[in-house]
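hi support,

uploading two proteins for the ticket. first:
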Amino acid sequence: MAPLPVLSGDAFVKAMERIGYRRVRMRGSHMILAHTSRRRLSVPRHRELDRGLLRRLIRDADLTVPGLLDLLE
């Protein structure tokens, strides 16, 4: 299994925008992302996302860790 990267909320959002997610709104410190055929994601705007939360966001976006690493390159 590929190691999970340490990401900020903003870096994760940039990666998700590459696969078609768009920022719908920002409420408090959370960014809401929408996609036409996938689930909505609520991403906290933290400097560092917790590993468990990052894994959940990856799973909700129908991605894998290696798939996320490809988007970050």
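and the second one:
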Amino acid sequence: MNENNYSNYNNGFDQSQNQGYGMNNASAPIQNQPQPKKESKAGFVAGIIATALVVGGVAGFAGSVIGNNLGTVTLPSVSGSETPGEDNGNNNNTSQEESKAESTLPKPETTIDVSGGTPVVRPLDEAKINDANNSYLLNAEELYAKVKDTVVLLYNYQEVQGYKEPVLSGSASGVMFTADGYIVTNAHVVANASKMTAVVYDYENDEITHEYEATVIGSDTSTDLAVIKITRDEPFKYALLGNSESVRVGQDICVLGNPKSLVSTLTKGIVSGLGRAAYSGSGYGCSSIQIDAAINSGNSGGGLFDMYGNVIGIIDYKLVSTGGSATVENIGFAISIDEAKPVINDLMVHGYVTNRPGLGINGQDISEYNAQREGIPHAGVYVSYIAEDRPVAKSGLREGDVITAVNGVLTPTINSIQTEVVKNNVGDTVELTVYRAGITGKYKEMKITVELSELNLQ
């Protein structure tokens, strides 16, 4: 509806780490990066091996020291006379008093066993894991085994001046939801991509991965959803899209994604809140499920799973501290799957979201202060563009008009206009409260009826 508005929204996605989006940005372009068909899983963690060695080495050393200290009894020193004893052939010059003192020291009643016990590894319930209907309640281990192959690693490659081939821009996650290779992710994950690839585990050997070039089928910035597709002869493992209507605050959930390219990372938490507003604030956006499970850069587009193995949300973003003394922790959001399903279906079939009503205009928000300076009683939207091929072009609305209400409801912003418009269907009419400047520059109120047309927001 507002090109400037959507442009700003997209720019926010590009600055994903600052905005709290879970997309991992590549640190530097690499020219002519090879795209292997097969490669070891170890290749994906090569970039963090140095860090892992440092952290692991320090942690292991500290643990060893603690363990040794716990298993050692330090005897106190005992002073005595310096009376020399006889030479017994071992050069032992210990005095009789010292020997007597040592022999009478109290012995510890108990000692600490630092050897540890034998761990009991309970086998996972394969019947639950392989149940195609997701009818069994799972623990986190069983859930991971069930869905780990359904969340894939995505790479976004973009054109960079001076490079012949697209260079790696960032990485994120996606959820495979059909056997023939359809993947749902976020719109900001595929934004500005000249090439997308998806990395899938080999189902027989999880040390091997396969990378496939992906086609962007459709993307919708209003909901921050996108659908991409990869192709091969063999079917893919896929997750079941569940329903979010029955989700309750406090229930256990798990997040599966690829933070910082650490493939197939599982985090666990609970549902913290329901019905949270979409990040974009757009009337066309989907509501979000708030969770406390960890979301990090690279988790964007990953799956929010209930403990049966159903996808109940698509990971979108988290709140982050932006300075000052305020601290934000464990506040993440996933797009509600019930609201995402019709969007996903439209993107698969049409490449955009259908039956989305709109006025067919672009505009700019006018603050209450600036509106009143011009004699307009309420904040509103300044009309900067009217589509000539939409019914609005014949409604009498003009560029330069200021819209303050739709069907009697005050609409101080573009998003609030969308919120009111989306309550209707394509072909319905709405009444706009409009202020228009006369010859003298004074604004006069008028009512204009506009037929709603279908928008194609990609």
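thanks. also noticed: The chain is about 20% helix and 30% strand.
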